[in-house]
Specification:
Blueprint lengths: L6 E13 L3 E4 H4 L7 H8 L3 E4 L6 H16 L8 E5 L10 H8 L6 E5 L5 H14 L5 E9 L9 H4 L4 E14 L6 E9 L7 E3 L12 E3 L1 H23 L8 E4 L4 H11 L10 H4 L6 H11 L8 E8 L3 E8 L1
Parallel strand pairs: 4-5, 4-6, 11-12
Antiparallel strand pairs: 1-7, 2-3, 6-7, 8-13, 9-10, 12-13
Helix pairs in contact: 3-4, 7-8
């Protein structure tokens, strides 16, 4: 006789929201700045446009707007939030944490707020930390935000990097709920994160308070990053699915970090994932680093593709190298 499933605390996604800068920069606009073309960019990356932050639009302001929209979508008051985690590599200031600034903007005076820095993997890392805090009883309602203004650290003379990135923010609201210990129950099922600092110089910023006392610019060895990306991402996705006891065919939607269409297609092919189950916003957002996953998730929820009860797999890889995956039932 099979024993009934015990009840456990789950981190359940209650709502999502996003925010994008007003200015849209197309590939045609980009070709006026550097020696490139729409055809060149689309063929190599899949990107057609990106949003660029203007005056008054910052990581803080975009993150706060995405958070407000996520709370509204969830039907939860800001006063219920007892933890805010912001994933960003482009904070408003070296300190304090952008999360505390957003906390103030939302009128929240209780709980805690801090930033997580894992570059493009930041949202997956932040979601993993939030889930752990909820399961440990340290938080009941968490805002997980990915917000970036990468345009402010780009070298606009380097066509190998400046054409890739954009600005934006996305947020989700996680709440502690008790459900049967089953992969059919809502909430985060599995999270896996990794890093390997030996490759830090393949994707980095050439400045910082302790070294140059400047912000610096993004630098990347594109071929090296690509070479590691497909293998690392596919491996951690398989690791997460194995831990949850599910196969690729059981996952309803794959919501990847939006880095490069070739990376997404290569990973999908490696795991046998049909392209029509991959959420892509890369063409209109570019690579928004830690904001890309929540931006893509919000787009797919709001247009009706992702529905309650769907099994969703998030994955990312970023500078460090860092990489990870989270499997959740929406």
């Amino acid at each position: 006789m099979t024993e009934p499933s015990r009840d456990i605390v789950r981190s359940v996604i209650k709502g999502c929201g996003s925010a994008l800068p007003h200015r849209v920069m197309t590939n045609a606009d980009m070709s006026k700045i550097v020696d490139t073309s729409d055809e060149w960019i689309v063929e190599r990356t899949g990107i057609r446009a990106r949003h660029i932050a203007g005056e008054g639009e910052t990581t803080r302001s975009l993150g706060a707007l995405a958070a407000k929209r996520a709370l509204e979508h969830a039907g939860i008051a800001a006063s219920a939030v007892d933890l805010i985690i912001v994933a960003t590599a482009t904070p408003d200031q070296t300190f304090p944490a952008t999360a505390t600034l957003i906390q103030a903007d939302l009128g929240i005076t209780k709980g805690a707020a801090f930033d997580v820095q894992a570059v493009c993997s930041g949202f997956v890392y932040a979601l993993t930390v939030a889930d752990a805090m909820i399961k440990a009883g340290q938080a009941q309602c968490v805002l997980v935000i990915g917000s970036e203004t990468f345009s402010r650290i780009l070298d606009w003379t380097d066509r190998g990097t400046c054409v890739l990135f954009g600005d934006g923010a996305g947020a989700i609201v996680l709440a502690a709920e008790t459900h049967p210990d089953s992969r059919l129950s809502p909430g985060v099922l599995v999270s896996r994160i990794h890093s390997d600092g030996r490759y830090h110089d393949k994707l980095y910023v050439d400045g910082g308070p302790s070294t140059t006392q400047t912000v610096g610019h993004l630098r990347m060895e594109g071929r090296e990053v690509f070479k590691h990306a497909v293998g690392n991402i596919a491996a951690v996705m398989e690791e997460a699915m194995l831990a949850a006891g599910v196969g690729p065919a059981e996952v309803d939607w794959f919501v990847p970090h939006q880095a490069n269409r070739r990376i997404l297609e290569g990973t999908a092919k490696k795991l046998g994932i049909p392209e029509d189950r991959i959420v892509m916003t890369l063409d209109r957002h570019g690579n928004t680093s830690a904001a890309s996953i929540p931006l893509a998730f919000d787009a797919a929820v709001k247009d009706g593709r992702i529905a309650k009860g769907d099994l969703v797999l998030f994955e990312a890889m970023g500078g460090g190298f860092t990489w990870g995956a989270v499997l959740a039932r929406f």
